[in-house]
Amino acid sequence: MNTRLGKRTLMCAGILTATLTPLLSACSGDGNPAVTPEAETGTTALDTTSESARYRLRFIGEWDTSQFGSRPSGAHFTGLIGSTVNTQASLWRSGELASAGFENVAELGANSNFRNEIRAAMDANQAGVLIEESDISAEGVATLEFAINRTYPRVTLASMVAPSPDWFVGVNQLSLLDTNGEWQSQLTLALPVYDAGTEGGAVFSLSNPATVPAMPIALLSETVAGQTEFENGLVGGRAMASFEFERIE
């Protein structure tokens, strides 16, 4: 952790609300949340074999006290950041060390250095379109749209769970193409919490010692009765947030 940065000045909560249908909370073998395809809604079918597509993404906070117990003051998810990518990109990955820019995302909700890393990936032909959205409250929702194509058909995204030592939710190289190489119409993902491996601490707090040496990114497993009772990124089998993708063009 870069102790020269003031954590408390870098985060704020959005005030939004949403309702959500139940989500699948299991994790797939590649470290991403398991994907639940949704049924067609009866709208005009889009060409699933087209070169490009456009998606609407809803980032939904489900950090409610009835399911997760006590919640720290000011609880929120920091501004979402990521990109469309190909398989060569490695912006963050479970089992690997966090980059300096990603450490700032996970510890501070500060995205500027990670944004520069994304732009470097763009210059290296590993990333396509920058994806960003503002903070959301613990039970809020943010909606955004982004373009995607077959050169960069995957998405990597992350948002800090705040306040926390270095915990975040997100996906790495999630493909929006199905196993037949066709654009998926809709999918929903429950998001487990990850530990970036850069700062110590077992509860929802900001001021903690750096982890030396840093540890690989991993699903969070911390147990402090009444505060943090995580197992593989979930609390009682439930995720604290979710993504809903819907193809719109």
From TrEMBL:
<dbReference type="InterPro" id="IPR038678">
    <property type="entry name" value="Spondin_N_sf"/>
</dbReference>
<keyword id="KW-0732">Signal</keyword>
<protein>
    <recommendedName>
        <fullName>Spondin domain-containing protein</fullName>
    </recommendedName>
</protein>
<dbReference type="InterPro" id="IPR051418">
    <property type="entry name" value="Spondin/Thrombospondin_T1"/>
</dbReference>
<dbReference type="GO" id="GO:0007155">
    <property type="term" value="P:cell adhesion"/>
</dbReference>
<dbReference type="Pfam" id="PF06468">
    <property type="entry name" value="Spond_N"/>
</dbReference>
<dbReference type="InterPro" id="IPR009465">
    <property type="entry name" value="Spondin_N"/>
</dbReference>
<feature type="signal peptide">
    <location>
        <begin position="1"/>
        <end position="26"/>
    </location>
</feature>
<feature type="domain" description="Spondin">
    <location>
        <begin position="43"/>
        <end position="228"/>
    </location>
</feature>
<dbReference type="GO" id="GO:0031012">
    <property type="term" value="C:extracellular matrix"/>
</dbReference>
